[in-house]
Amino acid sequence: MERTLVLIKPDGVKRRLVGRIFQRFEEKGLRIAALKLMNVSRPMAEEHYSVHRDKPFFRSLVDYITSGPVVAAVLEGSNAIAVVRKMCGATDGSKAEPGTIRGDFSMGIEKNIIHASDSHEAYEHEYRIFFRDEEILNYECGDEHIIY
Ligand code: GDP
User: Fold this and answer.
1) What's the family (predicted)?
2) Tens-place pLDDT, residues 94-109
3) Residue 133 contacts by C-beta under 8 Å, 6 or more apart in sequence?
4) What is the reported pLDDT for 32?
5) 66: three-class secondary structure by DSSP
């Protein structure tokens, strides 16, 4: 099983989309291994988006992700990183396919509802910013033999 980090960004939380988005992940067969509502500090945001430090939108991105609460989660499942990225859709909501989270709920390139790790290395970097290891729970839902 693979883990991935998901953030419902402040626009997703303020638009009350948290439940609908997590319903999609649960229906798909992903397991919630960790979950919290939290404010992101500027140092956390700068670390999370450190690969974008030299981009012109970096400051705006940090302002945005620290502008209100986010929901952080670790989701687990077979091939979870690629599966969740596909469910999120293209970065620019106005170009994302209908049926994806961004395609259905976003019109923006910055305010695009959700973040999801794009590689195992990114997950290893990102999850530590939001969770302690003991906050990520190991348990079985009991239907894994039907889902896989
Ligand atoms: P993601 O992996 O699809 O989230 O996209 P990236 O890793 O390329 O970018 C990280 C985040 O930066 C995106 O989710 C957007 O919120 C924001 N972003 C990306 N490209 C742009 C841009 O051209 N302008 C602005 N303002 N924000 C951007």
Assistant:
1) Belongs to the NDK family.
2) 999 999 999 999 999 9
3) none
4) 98
5) coil
The SS3 assignment for 117 reads coil
| Annotated active-site residue in 115, 120, 125, 145 | 115
User: Class for domain 2-134, per CATH?
Assistant: alpha beta
Give catalytic status of residue 115 as yes or no. Answer: yes
Nearest Cα residue to 104 out of 115, 80, 124, 88: 88
Identify the residue whose tokens are 């970065």: 91
Q: Could you tell me the two tokens for 48? A: 């999370």
In angstroms and rounded to an integer, the radius of gyration of the C-alpha atoms of the chain is 15
Strands of the chain, DSSP E: 2-8, 31-38, 70-77, 114-116
In which band, very low, low, confident or very high, does the pLDDT at 47 lie, cut at 50, 70 and 90?
very high
Say if ligand 1 is within 6 A of residue 61 CB: yes
